[in-house]
Design a protein that fits this description.
This protein is an alpha/beta fold and 169 residues long. The chain has 3 helices and 9 strands. Helix content is 24%, strand content 31%. Strands 1, 2, 3, 4 and 5 form a 5-stranded mixed β-sheet that branches. It has a 4-stranded mixed β-sheet with strand order 6-7-8-9.
Length: 169
């Protein structure tokens, strides 16, 4: 069998006492075994793990990338939900597609560096913000597809016949 990558001599959950090789082909685990043979393939890599534990990537199931990194734009005096809603609503007035993209990118990159490989983000659409958040996050989904499986769940804050019901992309 040919692999793009073999991770050599690692430990996996449930088989901690034995060292295994993990063969990866086309970005997916193709085989796990004690000593995998790798047929020469252009650009193939062989990485020695020296007994390190391999774990699956982290999954972030609920985040709002379109609103990440805005604590400096909102004041918190009472700590109530209503205050948070009002503070975010006020901050949204200054949101641009570029601003949302830059803030969400910072958060996404931090998550990737810490091992997150799947993420579901909720993106708000309302008459004030329109599709700015969706467009920014959709661009990040394309840009970071190599590192993270990003699912976008669009929801509308206020009913509007021109804004679709919640969707996932």
């Amino acid at each position: 069998m040919t692999f793009d990558l073999i991770l050599r001599q690692g430990r996996i959950a449930g088989r901690e006492r034995e060292l295994v090789d993990i063969g990866v082909r086309d970005g997916r685990i193709a085989q796990i075994g004690p000593r995998l043979e790798m047929a020469a393939r252009p650009g193939a890599r062989d990485v020695a793990l020296n007994g390190r534990l391999l774990v699956p990537g982290f999954v972030e199931t609920h985040i709002h990338l379109d609103k990440s990194c805005i604590s400096d734009r909102c004041s918190c005096r009472t700590g109530t939900l209503q205050e948070a809603i009002e503070g975010v609503a006020a901050a949204k007035r200054a949101f641009t597609e570029e601003d949302i993209h830059a803030r969400a990118r910072r958060t996404l990159e931090k998550a990737i560096v810490q091992g997150t490989t799947r993420m579901r983000t909720h993106v708000e659409v309302d008459p004030r913000i329109g599709l700015k958040g969706f467009r920014a996050i959709r661009a990040l989904k394309r840009e970071y597809a190599w590192a993270v499986d990003l699912e976008i769940c669009v929801f509308r804050r206020k009913a509007s016949p021109t804004i679709p019901a919640p969707l996932s992309f």
